[in-house]
Amino acid sequence: MKNINFIIKAISLVLTVGVLLVYSGFAAKHHSSLKAHEQAVAEIEAHNAEVLRKLNEAPAGKYKDGEYEGSARGFRSDIKVKVTVENGAVSAVEIVSADDDQAFFDRAKGVIDSIISAQSTEVDAVSGATFSSNGIINAVVEALKTAEG
Amino acid sequence: MEQNSKKTVRSGEQLKKSRRTHALVRAAVQLVFFIAMPGAFYAGFAGIKSIFGSISAGTPIEMNGFIWALVLVAAFTILFGRFFCGYICAFGSFGDLIHWISGLVQIKLFKRKKQFELPEKASKFLRILKYLNLAFIVIFVALGLYAKLRGANAWDVFSQLTSLSFRFDGLTVGIILFVAVIALMAIKERGFCQFLCPLGAFFALLPMLGILRRDKDGCIKGCSICKKNCPVDLQLEADGFSNGECIGCDKCAAACPRANLAHPENKLIKYELVPVLIKAALFFALGSLIGLCRFF
Ligand code: SF4
Ligand code: SF4
Ligand code: SF4
User: Fold this and answer.
1) Is-contact B41 B90, C-beta < 8 A?
2) Does B141 reach chain A within 8 Å, measured CB to CB?
3) Could you tell me if B96 and B30 are in contact, meaning their C-beta atoms sit under 8 angstroms apart?
4) Has residue B10 been placed in a domain?
5) N or C: which end of chain A has fewer CB within 10 A?
6) Which ipTM score applies to this complex?
7) B52: nearest CA in chain A?
8) Per-residue pLDDT for B39 more than 70?
């Protein structure tokens, strides 16, 4: 048959992409129910923490509320971040300045979500963008040093 | 076929000129991409890792910048053959530079008549390694073990160099591998591409529409000039499985006395170098769009 190799390769490609799409669809469903569950748990925990704080009249976390800046070396540049602490917890991390390659850096920003949801800087770097994401993590560590009470 | 027997035979002078022009244009395109998009191959392969990383974590595959880079290089390869490898990939271009320097050293310094060539049999065998390398990496990522290998690869070292960042802490194993890869590319033209590159292995498995086609009936009997000029020792078949190994350098096409190797688009545009520039411009535009260019 003519073009048999081409056809085999084309079919394998279509099958692979198909399998990945089906997987992604299922994972998305599973993931959203998981997220909803996690959010419910987080809300309850936040409520509990608030109640405890009011009872003890003391801050819940080890950080003082406020905004703190820190910087660390990224892939090609220094990354500067602004960390917001609310009710003793890290509520937001904003990139103030960075000059790493955009495709890598966009990806690296994923660690911000990890840091906020884990309330810790002991999170894994984003694979493929290790230098940029470690830069963000280290910058947050620097910022939080000044936030410690 | 009737028309083929009428095909003109290019004279030695014409061939020399054709090879020269092709080599110059190719080097110029490679230089531009080396400066502007040295991370393209890295981002494309990070796309593959990102897919298997998601699977490992059980999360849906998100369309991040890396996956767009993967889609771009894969789409280019399906449409045009491995044009990306031949003209754009900074690591491949780096390999060409090393091999060229190695040739100069061997001939000028050590007075050898010809640059050393690896026997075809050895190459054919070593090619298999890259598929194993790809499988190994994908499995490691899927098992969530890849993070442990951080820095233990030649590409991390190379991207530190091209990004002018020069941070080599934690890259000792990577540096050793990088030096080994340089040695390999000095011995064998595009040795890394042919034997080890996991992205190249992925490309070789893709169906390719725009790959060079050899019009077998129009060939000179017993001729194997294209094969002798090919870094991969290929004589392209109409539909051979190993056509995927072709790194898209177009060297064979520039050297064929009958101009008997052509991309489909060459039928529309007479002058071979115009499609090359169009393809390069297209990649530049799309690559810049998804953030691969270091200037925009
Ligand atoms: S085989 Fe790999 S290293 Fe070689 S040019 Fe292609 S992508 Fe680049
Ligand atoms: S160089 Fe290759 S394609 Fe051209 S005539 Fe000889 S065998 Fe045929
Ligand atoms: S010389 Fe070899 S690798 Fe280059 S385009 Fe021709 S067949 Fe492909």
Assistant:
1) yes
2) yes
3) yes
4) no
5) N
6) 0.83
7) A20
8) yes
Q: What is the pTM of this model?
A: 0.81
Reported as a single tens digit per residue, the pLDDT across B215-260 is 888 899 889 999 999 999 999 987 788 899 999 999 999 999 988 8
**Beta strands B213-214 and A89-97: pairing type?**
unpaired
- Any chain A CB within 8 A of the CB of B142? no
Specify if B66 maps to a domain: yes
Contact B239 A2 (CB under 8 A): yes
8-state DSSP, A63: B
**Residue B146 touches partner A, C-beta closer than 8 Å:** yes
Q: What is the DSSP letter of A148?
A: B
Contact residues of A toward B, CB < 8 A: 2-7, 9-10, 12-13, 20, 23-25, 27-28, 30-31, 73, 75-76, 101-104, 106-107, 124-125, 127-131
B106-148: per-residue pLDDT in tens? 988 888 888 888 888 889 999 999 999 999 999 999 888 887 7
Sheet of strand A66-73: strand arrangement: A66-73, A78-86, A89-97
The answer to whether residue B9 sits within a structural domain is no
